[in-house]
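Write out the 3D structure for:
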Amino acid sequence: KDVLSSYYQQTFWLEGVYTWNRSKRITFKLPYHKIEDKDADVIGTSNSLGDIIVAVPLKKYSNFKRSTQNIGFTPQLRLPLGNKKTNNNGHLGAGVSLAYSLESFSFYQMYDIFGWVYDDKDAQLGLDINVGIHPYHNNKTNTGIFLIWDLTGRWEENSTTLLSGPVLMPYRQNMMARLEVKFPMIENGKSTQLSRGITINTGIGFVF
């Protein structure tokens, strides 16, 4: 008899940005979750829209001879779209983010620290760090690639998660893709004894 438990989740994000100017914009992120939860011989599946996240990133840019930098402050709201509460859905929340990034012709770095508070679950503190290189760029076709190493940390009450791994970001004209693979370095918490395992995120974006 199979007595092992497993949890598999796929999340698809629809994201949009409206820009008034380079320093002011509004964004939204809408997740769609596909979950398979296996406990012994019982397998449960569920598909659902998640909570929409609306944010207003405010950025201050500074341009130098060989690089550009920006400091960002982002208030955010998480709004439930339904009445059903799960681990992924149904949680009203407010967040704020403080970020810094520096980019030159050959080097890129980004640091983002943020926090979330919710009406009915533990608050969360997060840290994202991206450091990498820009080894190729073609001015004529606006084509290039970034190679980045990512560090992701999340802290809640009695819970710590730290993931790290490589990120590949190719771009061409008005299109950019992102592929990242994250490996667990630290995982402990009160809600589960199952490791998250390897996390793979892919995305593609267009500018109109």
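The mean pLDDT is 88.
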